[in-house]
Amino acid sequence: GREVTAADAIIVHLDPGLAFGTGTHPSTSMCLDWLSLNDVADKTVLDYGCGSGVLAIAALKLGAASALAIDIDPQAITATLDNAQTNQVAERMTCAGIEHALVDQYDIVLANILARPLIELAPKLAAATKVGGCLVLAGLLERQAEEVRAAYAPWFAFETDGERDGWNRISGVKRG
Question: pTM (2 decimals)?
């Protein structure tokens, strides 16, 4: 692993197994940056397309009350459960496949997937976000940001995009 020197750094121990997500990809690191810069204490989190579970686990280690981690890939769910155990946050984590009905609304909704599914999921992820809650989207290229933002514009007021190595992170707050 890489050496972390910041005294207040949250260390997340990860074995991605066969799932995507070591935390070093620009999309993932921008989401981790967002989590570290925003108050996640006591918040409920949805990590849609969780991969290795890195974002949900980081949120829990930063004090989130609970996280629901969802992925289309059964191996991702296995990896997320294992990593949640390793990081001692398993009791606050729920994992499920995409057939899971999203009945609750969450304070923070994270989706680090790809532009096309992000666009298709807009109504579903918007409905899963509490009014005043935050949405963080990543896994999209800079040239795809406008189209993704347009899909979520009916529900969200956007913050300034994050950008790293040609990848974008879109974040916003759900309007009332």
Answer: 0.90
